[in-house]
Amino acid sequence: MEASVHAAMDARLRRDSPRPLAVALSGGGDSLALTLMADAWARAAGRELLVLTVDHGLSPASAAWTDTCAGIAARLGRPFVRLAWTGEKPPTGLPAKARAARHALLADAARAAGATVILMGHTADDVSEAGAMRAAGASTPDPRDWSPSPAWPEGRGVFLLRPILDVRRADLRAWLARRGETWIEDPANADPRFARARARAMKPEDQDGIGAPEAWPGLVEVANSGLIRMDRGSLTPRRLGLACVCAGGGTRPPRGAALGRAAETLAGTLAGARIRTEGGLVLISREPGEAARGGLAPLALSQGHEAVWDGRFAFVARRPGLVVRRLAGLARRLGPEARRGLAATPALARGGLPAILLPDGEVGCPMLAPIPGVDWTPLVADRLDAARGQVTREPA
Q: CA nearest 67: which of 170, 184, 145?
């Protein structure tokens, strides 16, 4: 069994990477077995293994469980990061909110350490349970062995690997027992208030983001402005939804009737993105008038710290006093070079471009003309590449 798990890791990971590898450890049997097997793989590869544990604060025993995980990491001689979901907990939708918080915390910690892959302890039983939940009327997808982090923008550039997805839970526990290991049993796994518990446990599918990647045929181009061009003939509703959430900078792809209508008409606004056709192409770009999610709100940049604006662009200001907001309404204040760049940008993408408000009252747009002291990274292209299966293993 351990050999097959290591083979699954070899298929996705790079043994020669200088980056650390992260593993999510709850202290339960699944994640404990994964952590021990990952530790053996990492030692053979000469790689660092970072152990991450999230204390959701939902049980009086959660702090003690986190202490147990810290002890496991110490026994293995691995660095440990204790993460906590703090603040008031919602009265409804608790599993989904806890899942979102967990993924955001894990992704932030992984990125801070330089890791691009987080190992997750889902098993063959989780696949079976997801099927049982669908049979009961839920829309739960199967967990997949490789997928982008569902947290956005925290999970930018971070992928999830589930190398024990073909292993049964009972086999993992038998393997642990033979090694003399003990593990935590969370009572929430038997709480019938939660849909997963009715299938087996409060262990959601962790697939609320862009989900499992798939290969897309035909043309797919992403400009630095975030404008996506796709072949109309190869478009499916799922691909349209993924393209819209990437272009719109949101967190969850659209589903249901709204997606169906947009896929049929190829027009209008979906997930914060405009959809237009141009011959045999579909053009998708940020809708500058859509402000319900608050992503287009002005953002003050903190000098020397990376900040993500609207889920589409990351900025690092090397000087104080800079603010980023949407360009709509400010185009006349651009300098000559930036105005020429704006004229060459498709009209669909112009209003949603980021504008940098400078302390002297001037306005710049770094993708139209360089701004001294401002570094920027476009995020839409990399996110869409992850969604459409262009990244099949750990980035170099």
A: 184
110, 50 in Cβ contact below 8 A?
yes
Q: Report the alpha-carbon distance of residue 69 to residue 72 in Å, rounded.
A: 5
Structure tokens at 156: 């930018």
DSSP character at residue 90: P
One-letter amino acid at 33 equals A
Looking at the DSSP assignment, which residues form a beta bridge with residue 160? Answer: 118, 147
**pLDDT tens digits for range 47-64:** 999 999 999 999 999 999
Helices 237-248 and 380-387 pack at an angle, to 10 degrees, of 150
Amino acid at residue number 116: T
Question: Do the beta carbons of residue 202 and residue 195 sit within 8 Å?
Answer: no
Question: Which positions ≥6 away from 261 have C-beta within 8 Å?
Answer: 268
Tokens of 33: 């077995």
**Confidence band for 203, pLDDT divided at 50, 70 and 90:** very low
Three-state SS at 148: strand
> Nearest-CA neighbor of 331 among 291, 362, 358?
362
b/e 184-216 (16+ beta carbons within 10 angstroms → b): eebebeeeeebbbbebbbbbbbbbbbbbebeeb
Q: Are strands 49-55 and 80-84 parallel, antiparallel or unpaired?
A: parallel
Question: Is the Cα dihedral 77, 71, 73, 183 positive or negative?
Answer: positive
177: number of Cβ within 10 Å: 12
Rounded Cα distance between 116 and 183, Å, is: 27
Burial class (CB in 10 A: 0-12, 13-18, 19+), 70: middle
Q: pLDDT digits over 158-187, tens only?
A: 999 999 999 999 999 999 999 999 999 876
Beta strand segments in 196-272, E: 220-222, 228-231, 268-270
CA distance 332 to 156: 33
For the beta sheet containing 80-84, the strands, ordered from the edge strand earlier in sequence to the opposite edge, are 80-84, 49-55, 21-24, 117-119, 159-161, 146-148
Using CA atoms, how far apart are residues 42 and 111, in angstroms rounded to an integer?
Answer: 18
Q: Are strands 21-24 and 49-55 parallel, antiparallel or unpaired?
A: parallel
Residue 181 and residue 170: Cα distance in Å, rounded?
Answer: 14
Give 320's DSSP letter.
S
Other C-beta atoms closer than 10 Å to the C-beta of 357 total 19
Average pLDDT over residues 12-25: 98
